[in-house]
């Protein structure tokens, strides 16, 4: 059974940082592309970032709004993918989801709430 468990969300002031984690099980993590998505109230799920492998190299892609502020990474030994978020803005407030695969249409976890507010 595929399981994705996000953690690390919370309330943070504008300009602050959070590190989201997603612990996974039930599939060969090291060969799977992994994606972070987010959904703000009343809005559709939005792609944030993807990490994957091309041959022996790792690639990362970030949405335009995330470039320069967010970093996606993974630890294949721990079957975990991370999203480091710096310089957070109120518009980053959303439920953040870890998603199996290279798009936001894959299996996802229950999410972790990120609220950016003073």
Helix content: under 10%
Give a short account of the largest sheet: 6 strands, mixed
Q: Return Rg in Å.
A: 13 Å
Ends apart, CA distance between termini: 40 Å
Look at the structure and give the mean pLDDT: 97
The amount of beta strand, in percent, is over 45%
What's the overall geometry? globular
Q: Structural class of the secondary elements?
A: mainly beta
Number of helices: 0
Can you tag this structure with a few keywords?
118 residues; mainly beta; six-stranded mixed sheet; four-stranded antiparallel sheet; 10 strands; 52% strand; globular
What's this entry about, in short?
The chain is mainly β and 118 residues long. The protein is 0% helix and 52% strand.
Can you offer a commentary on this structure?
The chain has 118 residues and is mostly beta strands. 0% of the residues lie in helices and 52% in strands. It is built from no helices and ten strands. A six-stranded mixed beta sheet has the order 2-10-9-4-5-6, with no helix packed on it. A four-stranded antiparallel beta sheet has the order 1-3-8-7, with no helix packed on it. The N and C termini lie far apart (40 Å).
Q: Which helices and strands appear, and what pairs or packs with what?
A:
Elements: E1 3-7, E2 10-12, E3 18-25, E4 34-39, E5 46-54, E6 57-62, E7 70-75, E8 80-85, E9 94-100, E10 112-116
Parallel strand pairs: 2-10
Antiparallel strand pairs: 1-3, 3-8, 4-5, 4-9, 5-6, 7-8, 9-10
